[in-house]
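Hi L., both proteins are below.
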Amino acid sequence: MQKDHLEVIPENIDSKFDLVLEGHDTLNRKIDNLAQKTDERFDLLDLKLKALNQKMDKVAADLKAHREDTESHQGVYRVKEG
């Protein structure tokens, strides 16, 4: 009876270790997937920010050109000093 009991204990421990290892593997895959999705989202955000910066640079250049040459807009814009 005692020998049978001692054989059951290692089998029980082995099955628990297998469960722990399986859980660790599952969590590792989930973390890898999350890291990949996060990288993809940051890459998309970087792309959008670059596009926004380019648009802002164009608007700033247009505004600068307009301010430098307000005389060319006499029929449309009038600058009044108050």
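That was the first. Here is the second:
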Amino acid sequence: MCSSAGRTRLPVSLRGGTSSMPAVPAISVAGLTKSYTETTGLFDLDLEVPAGSVTALLGPNGAGKTTAVRLLATLLKPDRGHMRIGGYDAARQPREVQALIGLTGQSASVDMKLTGKGNLAMFGRLHHLPWRTIRERSRLLLERFDLATAANKPVQSYSGGMRRKLDLAVSLIAEPSILFLDEPTTGLDPASRQALWEIIRDLVAQGATVLLTTQYLDEADALADRITFIDAGRRIAQGAPAELKAQVGQTQLRLTFRSTGDAETARAALERSAAVRSGAVVQLPLPGGRDGLDALKTVIDAVDRAGVSPERYDVQEPTLNDVYFQLTGHQRPDEETKKNSAKEKTR
């Protein structure tokens, strides 16, 4: 993808700006429910997404993430609950909501037989845009998504990453202020994922609001301002990524020494720091932010004064993986392996 310095920028009308939107949350949901059975669907979801931000919906397969997106995009009708999208009542004013939003679903919505330019034209006409507007926006979007050289090629010749970028471009043809992205990078190679991340960041920086579902927790950590975890159709936690990670544990410093004797000498020097030793490794908690940097320096100085030196040190922060496994109660793959091994030994 081109560097931002040489990249064609979207004009104000294609930046997802919020100047025409009311000064209210972009998405406001209360008690949203859509049940398929007694245990499947979405139940009593409360959600608020500020304008110009990214909120990620996370959870296991079948948790209700796609159902939530389809409800908010007015593709499904809720059993009960209230949704306001861009200040409009989604139940009473669906057309006004539809005029504000763009949707990229899990499956590509583009026509494989048409060209990239042809797909943009088709979706532009579906939105009743005049031809002059379609041509100008298509040109800008194809350049912005690095698809200009493939504009006249059939989409069936595109790579997976190119198709997903075209999918996102198509969702922007009508200048949406709010974007729903349902697992937009599933199946993409790392380079294509990074390219789409950069595009999403640019759109939000220019004023767009994004509601994102993803199976990649690192993706949510990299993009989202706020995260809502749902499981079995119900919200189980929400907050900023840093807040959620802080709930499951502290940052840990691990010092690895040449011998257990050196490690014990270091542990004794750090006794007031809640340091614990396991073999040749000493581990202790670190505070966050600037305090953590000061504490790290203090630890290294104390160990140095004790006359021993670690062969290496690692700072391990809690991750969204830790949050996911703790909140959902699912076992990590390594824990499942250990559990199965223990069962085998008892047989």
